[in-house]
Amino acid sequence: MKLNVTTIRKFLHKSQKPIGFVSGSWKTTQRFIDAEKRNFELLFFAFSIGLSVGLVGSVFRLTLDYINKLSTELYAYNSNGKLINYFILIILSTISVLISYALVKNLAPEASGSGVQEVEGALDQARPLRWKRVLPVKFVSSLFSLGSGLLLGREGPTIQIGANIGKMFTDTFRRPDDEVNPLVSAGAAAGLATAFNAPLSGIVFVIEELHGHFHYKFFSLAGIMIASSTADFVVRALIGVDPVVHMTIFNHPPLQSIWMFFVFGLFLSLVGYLFNAYLIKTLNRTRKLSKRNAYIYAGTVGIVVAIVGIFNFNLIGGGYQTIRFVLDHSFTFVFLLILFLSRLILTILGYSTGVSGGIFAPLLAMGVVFGMLFGNMMQSVFPAQILSPGIFAVAGMAGIFASTVRAPLTGLVLAIEMTANFELILPLLVTSITASIFTTMFGNKPIYTTLLKRTLENAAQQHK
């Protein structure tokens, strides 16, 4: 072959395409490698967040359990008819509520209440996550508010703490902006798993309740699954593996009784509508109080709760004691009705004080009480179809969550994980779906959506 200029040019022209192809392929391969590296880094940080939330949440739960144990002993010791002992209990409860309120009001107002609405706002980039302030304030103030006996739950604080730990990791390790949403969501999922020993509920909660705020991608979903399961593993290793609610494991009820759960869900939809409506009305009224009157209001609620606790300590607190109290005894229709209404009112009053504390646990307790109330009625009328009213207690946990939070799947999974009653999936589904559909038809908005809207409106007014 004779080499000349023309031959050389043809050879070089043909060689340019393979060389360019190889170069382009390498760049594409490098982009894939970089993307995979970032995805695995995301999963590693999700694991680290779950580990941290599990540790912090376990310390929080163990400390709170110790405080509650002391409170139980204190009420048992001092409830002997002496006026001075009653006075001491009332003073301690009131001071605890006031300390919690002062910490929140003066140091981190966003730590007020549940905190779930703040997490939703942060995922939408509408609210800041000031983790340096919120983490210590939420932790300490929640111990005082929950330890005082107020009818508030630990799950709101652990969810907000978990989300802020997620933000702490993104800031500390300077993660890209597109990782803030999945890592904060992973922290929130881990927080719920920590509160209830319910990892699946934490995952479902983010997907269902935070669906409009959580940026759904495969690795984001994998991140919340890793964080939730890791946190649950830590909690079970440090605290225990038993279900949060100890109760009978029920068999599936007869199929001819399923219609009762439809009726039960309808009643729960009304309960959810009333709870949300009066909670927002009470919050709107307390928001108008002066600083001095707000402290007086918070202290007054603390006094009322202490007086109820003196009457019966099982009737106050987040609701776990109430659940065991109701399940372990047989009560009249009138007593259960009074218990339900009193917890409904005291939960609204406690949350409206502005201290730290969630509403999941109080709602679940109300669902149990209302379920026993309805179950006793059904058993008296249809004894052959209802062998135990406790079945409605489990369904009540799922149904009342569905009607207030409008997250029926989360309520269903939460009730099953907390009680280990896996046989009751069908009646719980019927109750949850019915409650959520009818409460929507009544015009009931999801409670956290309403709370977030109020928070944004308040923030806008303060900046005017």
TrEMBL record:
Span-the-membrane segments of this chain are 42-63, 83-104, 135-153, 183-206, 218-239, 259-280, 292-311, 331-351, 358-378, 390-415, 422-442
The record's section on Gene3D superfamilies has: Clc chloride channel (1.10.3080.10)
Q: Which UniProt keywords apply?
A: Chloride, Ion transport, Membrane, Transmembrane, Transmembrane helix, Transport
One protein family per Pfam? Voltage_CLC
State a single Gene Ontology molecular function.
voltage-gated chloride channel activity
List, alphabetically, the InterPro entries matched: Cl-channel_core, ClC
Q: What is the topology of this protein in the membrane according to its UniProt annotation?
A: Multi-pass membrane protein
Per the record, GO CC terms? plasma membrane
| Coiled-coil region list | none
Localization (cell): Membrane
**Can you name this protein?**
CIC family chloride channel protein
Q: Which organism is it from?
A: Microbacter margulisiae
